[in-house]
Specification:
The chain has a domain at 118-135 and 148-380: membrane protein fhac: a member of the omp85/tpsb transporter family (Porin, Beta Barrel). Helix content is 4%, strand content 57%. The protein has 2 helices and 20 strands. The chain has a 16-stranded antiparallel β-sheet with strand order 3-4-5-6-7-8-9-10-11-12-13-16-17-18-19-20. The chain has a two-stranded antiparallel ribbon with strand order 1-2. The protein has a two-stranded antiparallel sheet with strand order 14-15. Strand 4 (38-48) and strand 5 form a beta hairpin. The radius of gyration is 24 Å and the shape is globular. It starts with a strand and ends with a strand.
């Protein structure tokens, strides 16, 4: 870098010469990564500027293991994708790719899941936030059932094909993604399935949170999440609406959402299996305190929290009953107290992920739900 400074009649004129070097076209990266209740290793390869217009080819292989119960749940995934900016605009990009994934759910249910598919998407910015619009076509399998698998799991076992479009809108003004002291987050994802395949549904999930600084380095964060899944008649034919499948439903409970409960410990169960639900509402609030001698700039915090939620399923309509099952489920979510837990803990915001060691006490628990009283360790990037 060369900088030449010379006086002028209007002040000081600066002449700068910058010398830069383009990054290598091929980038290989290996290491470990952490996500919500999971951690593992990865190998990524990226080929940049393939055709001279900032296009890229990306390939990855990932193996993860549950960090809630080490060795109890594993997942492997493989992906190949091509991405390119549109009209030389770095804020607007298109992507196409293929993927394959396998996941063991024997920790909370008696089966494994495998999927292979293709996806195409468009990412762009607006004045209000970022958008992702995409199509996914995927062949899914519920397989490798345990001997004690519940009737619900056995009913959904086998193959299914999902063809769907989805849109995600995000606006994020938080000063820190992992441990914010100010700002807010709003994210909404809408999915419409049934453009072929054998599943058809409307699914929407909303997440909102807000953080505010208080006196002496103390901050307050409150968050809310809600989800709705409604089976639809076939969009490409006249097939009637079918009940949702276990690999499309919502699950709730664990160290990164409803602390004080085991992973997927809330909501409907069939025997020993967590089978998920179609409607849920969850919320939480935390007070964060700086640790003595470490100060407000430290990534360590002490926090006190309360969180709760409710997860229910849509009941199949009965011919003699004209009650709307969706309306019934929404009302059920709001009837009585949700499942609630409170506690205190230590938080560490690492640049890669957030770590929590909490002591949680379940306050309200419904019959059949699986609470976790005592110490609970959580690793993730998106906490309630």
């Amino acid at each position: 870098m060369y900088l030449d400074q010379a006086p002028s009649s209007g002040g000081t004129a600066l002449s700068a010469l910058l010398s830069v070097q383009e990054r290598g076209r091929l980038v290989l990266k290996t290491g470990t990564e952490l996500g919500n209740a999971e951690g593992g290793g990865y190998l990524n390869a990226t080929l940049r500027n393939v055709f001279g217009g900032a296009e890229s080819i990306y390939a990855s292989a990932t193996t993860t293991t549950s960090t809630a119960v080490v060795g109890a749940r594993t997942r492997s995934s493989y992906e190949l994708a091509f991405a390119s900016p549109i009209a030389a605009d770095p804020d607007t990009a298109a992507e196409v790719g293929a993927f394959s994934a396998a996941r063991s759910n024997h920790f909370f249910a008696s089966h494994e899941e495998a999927s292979q598919g293709i996806r195409a998407g468009l990412r762009f910015l607006s004045s209000r936030g970022s958008h992702e619009l995409g199509y996914t076509g995927v062949w899914r399998q519920v397989t490798n059932l345990s001997d004690g698998a519940s009737p619900t799991v056995r009913e959904d076992a086998g193959d299914s094909v999902k063809s769907s479009i989805a849109h995600t809108f995000t606006t994020d003004t938080r000063d820190n993604k992992l441990l914010p002291m100010s700002g807010s987050l709003l994210r909404n994802t809408t999915e419409l399935a049934g453009l072929g395949g054998d599943v058809s549904f409307f699914k929407n999930e909303l997440e909102a949170s807000s953080s505010r600084p208080l006196a002496h380095g103390i901050s307050f964060t409150a968050g809310l999440r809600a989800g709705l899944l409604v089976p639809l008649p076939g969009l490409s034919d006249d097939t009637p609406a079918r009940p949702s499948r276990i690999n499309d439903r919502f699950f709730l409970g664990g160290a990164t959402d409803i602390r004080g409960f085991r992973e997927n410990g809330l909501g409907p169960r069939d025997g020993n299996d967590a089978v998920g639900g179609d409607v849920y509402l969850a919320g939480g609030a935390s007070l964060f305190f700086p640790l003595p001698r470490l100060g407000v700039d430290s990534p360590f915090r002490f926090h006190a929290f309360v969180n709760g939620g409710r997860l229910v399923t849509l009941q199949r309509p009965v011919a003699t009953n004209n009650t709307n099952p969706l309306l019934t489920a929404v009302k059920e979510v709001g009837i009585g107290l949700p499942s609630i837990a409170a506690g205190v803990g230590l938080v560490y915001a690492h640049p890669v992920a957030r770590f929590e060691l909490n002591f949680a006490l379940p306050v309200v628990k419904r019959e059949g739900e699986r609470a976790r009283k005592g110490l609970q360790f959580g690793i993730g990037i998106n906490f309630l």
